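If you are new to this repository, start here. Below is one unmodified record pulled from the training split, so you can see the exact layout before writing a loader.
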Amino acid sequence: MTAIARREEQLWSRCAGCASLLYRKRLRRNLDVCPECGEHARLGAPERLRQLVDPGSLRPLSDLLPEADPIDFVDVLPYPHRLTAARASTGLAEAVVCATATIGGHPVALAVMDFRFLGGSLGCAVGELITRTAERALDDRIPLVLVTASGGARMQEGALSLMQMATVSQAIAALREAGLLTVSVLTDPTYGGVAASFATNTDLVLAESGARMGFAGPRVIRQVTGRALPEGFQTADFLLRHGQVDMVVQRRSLRGRLVALLAATRAGRAAHAGHPPVPRQEPASRRERLADDDAALTRPAGPAAAVAPSPTPGAGQTPAVRDAWDTVRMARHPARPTTLDYLDSVFDGFVELHGDRLGGDCPAIVGGVARLAGRHVMVIGHQKGHTTAELVARNFGMASPAGHRKALRLMRLAARLGLPVVTLVDTPGADPGVSAEEQGQAAAIAENILTLTVLPTPVLAVITGEGGSGGALALAVADRVLMLENAVYSVISPEGCAAILWPDRSAAPQAARALRLTAPDLCRLGVVDEVVPEPSAAAHDDPAETAHRLRAALLANLLPLLDVPPAMLVRLRRQRFRRFGTTRGVNRAGVR
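And here is the target side for that same chain:
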C-alpha cells in the first residue's frame, strides 16, 4: 500500500451498521455516530470523558497500582503479557479511567470503562479504582457517574475478580446511605459481572442508544437454550420495554440529560438543607481548555510504586489438595448432597417459604425458617436434585430473577425478625435463558449483592458444591464464607474459560487448574475463611458424616457472630470485601 493510499484510508471509516463510507472528521464532529443510520460507534474512555465533562475541569484520579497477577494465570499466554499488550495498544493503565470533573458546572466523580482494554473486564485493579472513585465521591459529597463497557469479570484473576462485584457494590451502598446520587450509563456492550453489580444497582440507569446489556451474552444463551433470540434482544430499547433502565439517550443528548439530572439532585439537596441552590453556569467555551484535558487523559500509563501488602487472613483448615479438574467433577457428582438434604440432616424443623411476591416462585432456590441447635435461622440455598427429572424440574440449580428476588425477600425478612441468615451455594450459575434476561436477571443479582453488603444480621455462607459466578455470589456476600473440601467456586466454568482463552473446550482441565477454584486455593486467597473437610472419599459416600461436620462448622462460625452488634457486623463485612482490591499485594496465592 502506498503512502497516499494509507493516508486516504486514515481519512475514511466504514460504518459497522450500514457499511457507509464516512469521512472521519465528519464522523468525529458527529460524536462518532453515523449520520446515515445512527449507529453509535464504541468510544474509548478518554474520548467519552472529552464529550461529557466541562473543558478544563477534568482532574484524573491516580491509576497507579502495583503490578498484579494474583493467581499466576497462564493460558496460551501468561496474563502479564496480555496486560502489557493492552497497555501498549490503548495507552491506558487499566480498563477504567477515573476522575473528578464538572458536568454543566456540577461537580461529579466519574469512572469510565474502556472496552479496548481486555474487553473492559472487571479485575482487581478495575474494582479497586472504581471503589476509590466512589470513596472520593463520598468524601467530597458529590454524585458518582459510572460509564460501563465490559464483557464481565476478568477470568485471569479467578474468584478475586468475582469479589469486585461485591466490593464496588458496597461502595455504592455507602453513597446511597449518604444520600448521594449514583448514575450508571450503559454503553455497548455491558455484560456479566459488571451488569450484575454496579451497572444496575445505581439510583439511575441510563442506556446509550444502541447499547446492549445482559447477564449472559447472546452466544451463551443460544448455546444453552438452542433457541433463536428475539429481534432486538438485550438492546437499549429492549431494556426500556422490560423496565430495566430509566431512559434511552442518544449520544448527542447524553451530556444534557446528565446536566438536568445533576441539577435536580443539587436543587433537592439544597432545599432539604434549608437554603436555595446556587445557580451554575456552563463554561463560556468548550474549545479553550481541551488541550489541558487531552494532556491529562493521554499521560503515559505504567506501573506504580509498590503498595505495601496487608496480611492474608487466617485460612482455617486446608486439607490435602486434589487435582482441580477431579474436584470439579466431584462437585458436580449427581449423588452429592443438596440443600434439601442438608436441611433434613443439619437443621431441624424447616418450614419452607415460597414466592417473590411479584409473580414467581423459582424452584432452583429454596428457603425458609429452620432451627440450628435450638436457634432459629433463615436458610436459603440453591437446589439441584439427584435424578434427571429433579435436575430438570429445578433448572439444575440455576436461579431465575424470581429466585433471586425470593432470596432477597427472605433476607430482608430475616433482618426484620432478627434471624441470622445461612446460605447454601450450589449452582453452575444464574439462569442464562431468554425469559431471565427479559425479567432483569442482572439487576436481580445486583440487588442481592447490594443488600447483603448492608444486611444488619449475621450472614454465613457455605459453598457446598458448585459456586458458579454471579449466581453464586448473589448468596455469598457474607460475614464468614465456608467451603466443603470438594466444592469449587469460580468466576466462570472451566469449560467456558477454555472455550474463550484456549483453542477448544478440551482444555477445560487446564483451565480448572489455572482458575484456582478449589477450596485450598481460595483459602490462600482469602476468598474462603474455612474449609470443611469431607469424609475420606467424598460427601456423597458418607452424607451423615458430612452433615455432622457441616453442622459443627456452622455452629463454630455462627455463634461468635451472634454477639456482634449489627452496625459492627456490617462494618466488618464491608472490610472483608474491601480488602480484595490490589492493595493486598501482588501475590495473594502464595504459590510462587
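Two things worth knowing about this chain: The chain has a mean pLDDT of 84. The radius of gyration is 24 Å.
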